[in-house]
Amino acid sequence: MVIKELVVGPLESNCYLIVDEHTKETLVIDPGDEPDRIIDLIHENSLQVKYIVCTHGHFDHVSAVSDIKKETGAPIIIHRDEQEVYRGTRRQAVSWGFELDELPDPDMLVSEGDLLEIGSLKFVIIHTPGHSPGGICLSGEDILITGDTLFAGSVGRTDLHGGDMIELKKSFKRLMSLSEKTRILPGHGPETTIGREKKENFFSLGTI
Questions:
Q1: Which of 75, 102, 174, 208 can pair with 107 through a Cys bridge, CB separation 3.0 to 4.6 Å?
Q2: What backbone phi and psi angles, to 5 degrees, belong to 202?
């Protein structure tokens, strides 16, 4: 497995390309902006994009999906409970002072427990509402891609449309049941681990 990370856009979102090094099949996760950089990386490494996965529908994680889909033909994936947020992405971007065209409809709606495979790599969908109703994490191969559910030392905000602090606490607790060695690749900021977050995250420390 090869992991390539790009920090994109004014909100510095993490876009990940997860690659099966034998087949070159690839997940593009959260293409939030700067499509040219993402596309260049795809071509430079002769990657075969199989899925475009959105951990949630906020504009800083999906703004480049149109360009990536147009370039690769890969299906766009979101959780079935995230459709309303995804459809409102353009309005959300405008409210933050950014322009965005309407996004193409998602091609696949996933649910808890669904499996995405690229080559020999397998990732399970974990539904983690709280930051948004249909937020997801991808778990597999000793990594956890968390979108804006979980960050190093922190969690996603709940004051945006569809946010729910009670649900976020439940999602956080579920993730903390994973192996402490699991690498966390968050939607913003640096990589961390489940073990570190058990000790250092303010949710674990009971400060909220």
A1: 75
A2: -65, -20
Q: Using the 8-state DSSP alphabet, how is residue 14 labeled?
A: E
| Residue-level pLDDT at 208 | 52
Region 87-100 average pLDDT: 82
β-sheet bridge partners, residue 2: 19
In the sheet where 143-147 sits, what is the strand order?
115-118, 121-127, 136-140, 143-147, 183-186, 192-193
Average pLDDT score over residue span 187-206: 92
List phi, psi (to 5°) of 49. -75, 120
- Angle made by CA atoms 141, 184, 181, in degrees to the nearest 5: 65
Alpha helix ranges (H) inside 160-193? 165-175
Rounded Cα distance between 185 and 188, Å, is 9
Report pLDDT for 128.
98
